[in-house]
Amino acid sequence: MTRIDRLLAAGRTISFEFFPPKTDDGESALRRTLNELAPLQPSFVSITYGAGGSTRERTHRLVVDLLRHTPMPPMAHLTAVSHTRDELRTIITRYLDAGVHNLLALRGDPPRDAEEVFFDLEHAWQLVTLAREVGGDTFSIGVAAHPAGHPTAPDLATDRRHLAAKLALADLAVTQFFFGVEEYERLIDDLAGLGCHKPVLPGIMPITNIRQIQRFAELSGTEVPRRLVERFDALGDDEVAVRSLGIELATELCQDLLAAGAPGLHFYTLNRSTATREIHANLGLAPARSEA
Is the pTM higher than 0.90? Predict the structure, then answer.
């Protein structure tokens, strides 16, 4: 299986993120999206893991299906919340046995309606360490990065130190979505100042629905800049204009990120393909990998 750290060492990557569907209709929609994005030949695709492990089997099934039946290398998300160490070891071993060698190790957020939540592993770096214990150097392991700082961190400097320590054990990081290239550049500069030079992939989420993105941003402990909210609010209920502006802004952000030296682009697709395909076309990107 293609390891993501080796892809990054060879050049720029383009990747897409999906979530496991909960219904048959959702699965059909996702398969259409995968078929529509496959011609772009992404470097890899990542599959999320529901809060508290709520999509554990769906995530595993989708990741293995992608590995066995498509040319798109998958990266499986895995969270520590409400899982024992032994459960996590079993999940990691199943991926190893299935030939899945790319993991994104996350502490994870508890489900909002959960009555009982526990952390046998308190931090993502412990999950990275566990994966190394199970698979040695077989795994390419990613972790999450928050350009504005993790919402539970006491301050940005503390968050950066924790991220640098986590990245020292992992191979790469993928950021939460953000809205300006300066946020990414500050993150990279801060990590470099701590002696950390591992690749950090910027996460891109086009704004095609401003209220939806504001909710997502709030959940991740950040907010959409007021200057952007005002531009979208000025368009009112004109969905076509809102979508057009969102694609334009995302394209500009991607151009700025590539010019700033980002090692790739990671698109949060929300299981839809149109916006990602339009931005990809606007950037004039060739397929991320050759047929070989």
Answer: yes
